[in-house]
Structure formats: C-alpha cells, structure tokens
Amino acid sequence: MSVRVVARIRPLLEKELDRDVIVRADRVAEGAPLTLVKIPSPKNETEEFSFAFNRVYDQSASQEDIFTAEVAPHIKSLFQGLDVTIFAYGVTGTGKTHTMRGGLKLADRGVIPRLLSNVFRRAKKTMKDTEGATSVAVALSYYEIYNDKVYDLLEPPEKRTPTGLPLREKDGKTIVVGLSERLCQDLKDFERLYIEANNNRITAATKLNAHSSRSHAILRVKVTQTTGDAVRESTASAIDLAGSEDNRRTDNGKERLIESAAINKSLFVLSQCIDAISRGDKRIPYRESKMTRILSLGQNNGITIMILNLAPLRSYHLDTLSSLNVSSRAKRIEVREIENEIVYKQPPRTNSGLSGGEIQRQPLRPINSVHNSHVGTALALKAAEKAAKDKPVKAFSVYADKKPATVMAPNTSQPRQPLQPKRPSEPVEPQPRPSKLARPAQRSLPRPVPQTQQQQPPQHSQPQQPTIALTPDQIEAMVEKKVAEILASRAAAAAAAAAPAPDAQQAAESATNSTQAAAISEEVQRRLEALEQRIEREVQARGGNDGRSEGLRLLLQARHAKERGDEEAALRFYESALPFFPGQPKLLGKIERLRAKLGINDSCDLAPRSPAKEAKATGRRAARRGEGDDDNDPDYNGTEADVEDADDAALSPSKRKKKLNRARSQPRLPQAEEQDEPTGPPSPRTQMLLDIVNSRDVARIRSLHGFGAKRAQDLVDILALRGDGEGVGSLKELRGLPGMGGRTVERAREGLVVDC
Ligand SMILES: Nc1ncnc2c1ncn2[C@@H]1O[C@H](COP(=O)(O)OP(=O)(O)OP(=O)(O)O)[C@@H](O)[C@H]1O
Q1: Kinesin motor domain location, by residue (predicted)?
Q2: Domain boundaries in the chain?
C-alpha cells in the first residue's frame, strides 16, 4: 500500500487578504471528492499547475473532518497489530501544529488528542468484548529533534545533555536509546502529560509564525494487548514536523537561523529520501538526518499518512510549489502493510536452584515494534517480578477502574518453542585476544540461564556442547577495538586524545568483578552509547563532513538540471547548496546569472550572505586571471572539481568527446611528468607530491594546489586506515584513493615547484 498523502489548505488568518489567495482545491469531475490542488505558475499567471492527492481539504474543513476521514479508520488496524504513522509536513505557518495538536476547545482539538481519545475508547471496547480476557495498556513516549539532536519531552529540560539521546537500529527499526515511556490510563492522564510535555518543546516567534515550532515533535502511542500468554504490540506515531523556512522572509536572528538551517537541512534530506525512493534508488539517504532516520519513510511497515499543510497565499508561492512537488512524489512510496507479530509471555520464573541466587534476566527476544529498548526492558522486568509474586495481571482498564491500572509486560517475552537449550551454559574463560568465538575454558563465570534449561532437569551429566559465548574481557576488548577502529578512521587524533579511552585495566577489573551477566550487557550498552556520543562529538568537531557531501550532491544535481535545460531546478539546487559553501563567489555568480536569466529580481536574497555583485566581479576577475577561484577557496574548488569529474560521466558521448578534444588541445606535459613512471624512478615533482601525501600531515597536504582543509583531512583519514609506513607508492595509487580523481592529483602535482 502506498503512503496516503492528503493536502489541507488552511483558512486565511487575521490580516491576510482574499485577494492574495492563489491556491485552491478542486475535483477531477463534478460530484467527485476534492483531490486536486491548483496553483498558478509563478512565471505565467494564466497557466495553472494541478497536483493530485488522495484527498484535498479546503479552508472549510474542520478538525473533526480531517480526523474522521483520515485517522479514525486506522484505529482498528492499530488494534489488529499494524503500526500507524501520521505526519504533518509543510512550510512554516501553514497549520501543521494546528492539525496535529490543535486548540484546547473541543472542536479545535487536533489529530493527537482525538487519536488518544479513540484509542482509549477502543481499548475499553476490546476489553468489554472479550469480557476481560484481553487487557490493553497504552504507553506514551514523546520527543523532539532540535538542531538534529533528540530530546525527551517527557523529561524536564534540565535533564537534557548537550548531545541529546542517541539513536540505534534494532530489528530494522530506529530506536531512541534512553527515552522514557509513561503509561497512560485515560484521556485526562494523557492530557496532563501532553500539555506538560509541550511546554518543554522549543517554539519561538518568527516573522511568519508567532508560535513557530523549532523542532520536529514525535509522539509514540504504544498499544499493548494481552490475552493470556499472547502479547500483541503496535504503535501509532503522530509527528509534527517543523516547517521549512525561507529566511529571506523570517528575519531570523542568529539563533533562529541556526535552528532554521537544521530544520531546512532535515527537510531537504527528507525530500531527497522521497526522491530516491520514488526513483527506486538502492541508496536512500535516511542516515543523513535524525528525522529521516526516525521517520524511516518507506521502510516502516503498517500505514502511513502524510498531511501536507498549505497556506493559500501568494507570499508562499514558491514554497508551496516546492512542498506540493515533494508531497506528490511521496504518494509513490510503498509501505508494507505487515502486522506486528504476536509474542508469548514466559511462564513465571522459578528459582530452580541451578544457579542459586544468581539467576539472571533472560535474554530478551527481539521486540518487533519496540521503540525504546530500555523502557521495554524495564517494564518487562517489573512485570516479570510482579508476575512471579502475583497471578498474571489483568492489565489496563481505561474507564471502569476501581482497580488501579497495572503495568503488564510489553512485547518482551519469548514465543513458545520446543524445549531445547538455546545456549549452553558452560563456563568460559577470558581469552587473551578479542575473538568473536570464545573458547571453552575452566574458570566459571555465571551466565544467563535460558528459561528452557530452568525447566529441565539438571544436565550436568550431558556431554558438553561447543560454547559460543563472550566473556566480559572479550566484550570489553571488542568494544575497545571497535572504538579504536572508528576513531582511527575518522582520524580525529586531537579530539580522541582530549577524551581518552577509559582505563582498560580498570574497566577489565570491574568487568571481572562483575558476576552478573546482565551487568555485562549493560556495560556493553553503556560503552556503545558512549562510543556513539563520542563519534557524534567528533563529527561535530570536524565541522560535519556530511555537509560537504550534501553540498556536492546539490551541485551535481544543479549541473544535471542545467544539462536537462531545467534552469529553474538548477537555480533551486544551487541555492540549496549555498548554505554548504557560504559566500562562495563562483556559486553566487552562478545563482545570480541564473536569476537574471529567469527574470527573478530578488537581489536581497543573496545580500545577507555576500554582496552578489562583488562576488560576481570576483568570479570574473578570477576567471580573467584563468585561475578559477582556487586562491579564494581551495575547498570549494575541490568541490567544483569533484562535481566536474562526476559530471563527465554523465555527459552525452558527443559532449564528452568535445571535452576530451579540448583537453587534448591543451599544452601537454612532457611524457615523463605525466605518467606513472612505468619503468624508472618517479620524477622529482611526483616524488615530492608522494612525500607530502605520505607525511600524513594535514597542514602540508593542505598546501597542495586544490586541497582544502576537508580534502586534506579526508586523505589523512584514508591513509590512517593503512598501516604505519604503508605509504602511497605511485600517482596511480594516489588517484585510486577515494576522493582523489585524476584531475585533482594532476593539479596538485603541477602546483609543486621543484628545485633542480
Ligand atoms: N485550519 C486552521 N484553522 C484555523 N487556524 C489555523 C488553521 N491552520 C493554521 N491555523 C493558524 O495558523 C497559525 C499557524 O499555524 P501553526 O502554528 O499550526 O503552523 P505550523 O505549520 O505548525 O508552523 P511552524 O512550522 O512554524 O510551527 C496559527 O495561528 C494557527 O492557529
């Protein structure tokens, strides 16, 4: 089933005028529902663009209309085990928060409170229909992504850490590690939590919206239904995305601009993901933003509804067109409608005496729809403890409830399976070097005892089975090794030194002292989190390489658009690339030329970044000198070179031939200088280049023609992956390294002055 995309055009607000309305809803035929959005072409008012959606709601649509038609029908599916995702998308000030949250009055309530109300009602009905055999628990988590960091909205802001909560992939889903989850008994309970949490959400006044959301907010409603041993879990996610902003219109100050850049970037990545999915690309750039990682559009199973919010005004013209474009492509995204599987609770644990007081927590079965592993684990433990004492609990009752609601185990138990030990419990000894397979050993180390073993007679007399287990030391060593590998690959030596790895000896001791297998897994978890945070810090410290590749991609797309003759798209891509190469004269020149060509006379657009005329003049001056912009911004030049290299591949054969001929007609270097010294030793110039490269010294490499800080650092990173003393031996080898095209290497070499 495809993503369902519906558009909602908001009514005019106070001070907005009828005569400025340019967006309207329409239908394909008389009597058919509204499914079209019509908007004039920005170039030619008499021409009208038409975008088709699954449904369109005009200014008169109420909150109830939207909910009843778009969300209510899926509550049943939610209770059948399907995940449901509803997200609001659109430019700032178009009504996303109004649609999702709404106002306090009953009629103004948005999708989220109505969703909760319906969930509680359905839970009550389910329990009633099954005469109490099925119990239902509703749990909430609520978080925001602000400046690409995840913060728990159910926790007070004082508890926030600068890096936010880490994300992790688990069973094909992205989970937020350490996120809190609260059980909600009824609507009142929910409203109290929700209002309080919304106060923690970051909003601010901008010129376009007095209460503009500065973050993406994600509410997860986990519904857990338990019938006997069977537990079914499903999640409804309601997402209020922050709106894209055209900072020419917001008058944003510095802080707002930073927020805005993060918002725009994540929304840009979302549009890239949508494009890539609809093109059928293999690589979808989900990981380039936390929002897209979490949203996982097209990767999530269940039902997805996208609500495109639109303002009807002329002042939003280009922004509206852009979001209409993105959303109409989103319709093509297929989502698998797969129910979450039912899992079975374990029988209450008994102490078999096998391991005395050291019985450990059972290894948890992977939870299909869990969004928060910590919470799931904590709840499972709590429930299991309680279950051991009491009878199996009758969990959640929404309305009736003289009895207080009881927490029940979420989807953490194991399915019934033939009794056979999953893991042998033979002791193992720490190995001298890290290895994935532990070897059998004599020293005893308590480990988790699988449930199945607890129920069977002791098996001391059975022959030993091969052990596949890890000791604390091994785990420690593996984590350390992984940390070292990743850090080395990022070659952030300075930052790594500033945050030294924990004392291995001390860590090893503490691990050895630990007799709890659960503690081991917690330790691993903790270390992984620390690792993730460290990597994130380093990426930030290095100025976010992602930005550069993003910028590159945009430039490349601009080129392609230009080749297709789509100058508007080219302009859009160049403009989107500008934040990644701020003030770059050549880029500014291109933008200005295209604008002039397209008759877009908005010179103030570029003014805040750099006076465009000045930039253009600089570009021209540089061009006259025949230097491009090398002297001004080697980084960017490298970028352009990369783009040009990449472009070559995309050129038509005739263009490629022309380009080749041009290259041939240029003065050629002496043969010996040009080739890879097939027979003799390298020329002095080549040798000098190789020496500089092999020095792995960022400063020296930066001094090469066409090398900026990032390119130099990238090269050092790549070299760091080789062993010490394993240098680059030839130009050919150098060209073969990632990011080192033939042209880059040649320019660097030609730029060297050799004293003979
Ligand atoms: N359907 C509607 N009916 C009445 N008022 C609306 C409607 N949609 C939006 N509004 C009003 O428009 C203004 C902007 O809406 P809202 O804050 O929801 O926009 P937004 O898209 O969430 O903006 P941002 O991305 O900046 O957070 C608010 O005052 C809101 O009350």
Answers
A1: 2-333
A2: 4-330, 430-448+467-542, 545-649, 676-756
**pLDDT tens for residues 685-701?**
899 999 999 988 888 89
* Strand ranges in 114-229 using DSSP code E only, listed in sequence order: 134-146, 149-152, 167-170, 173-176, 182-183, 203-204, 212-213, 216-227
Q: How confident is the model at residue 286 (pLDDT cuts 50, 70, 90)?
A: confident
Residues contacting 447, CB < 8 A, separation 6+: 360, 423, 425, 427, 428, 469, 517
Neighbours of 353 (CB within 10 A): 10
Give tens-digit pLDDT for 1-24.
788 999 999 999 988 888 889 999
Residue pair 611/603 in contact (Cβ under 8 Å)? The answer is no
Q: Is 172 annotated as a binding residue?
A: no
Angle, nearest 10°, between helix axes 742-750 and 684-694? 110
Average pLDDT value over all residues in the chain: 70
Q: How many angstroms separate the CA atoms of 695 and 690, rounded? A: 8
528 vs 719: which has the higher pLDDT: 719
- Residues 676-756: name the CATH superfamily: AF1531-like domain (1.10.150.280)
* Mutation pick for ligand 1 pocket among 16, 92, 96, 98 (CB with most ligand atoms within 8 Å): 98
Q: What percent of the chain has pLDDT over 90?
A: 25
Topology (CATH) of 545-649:
1.25.40
Please state which CATH class domain 4-330 belongs to: alpha beta
Between CA 607 and CA 614, with CA 610 as vertex, the angle to 5 degrees is 100
Question: From ligand 1's centre to the CA of 600, what distance in Å?
Answer: 29
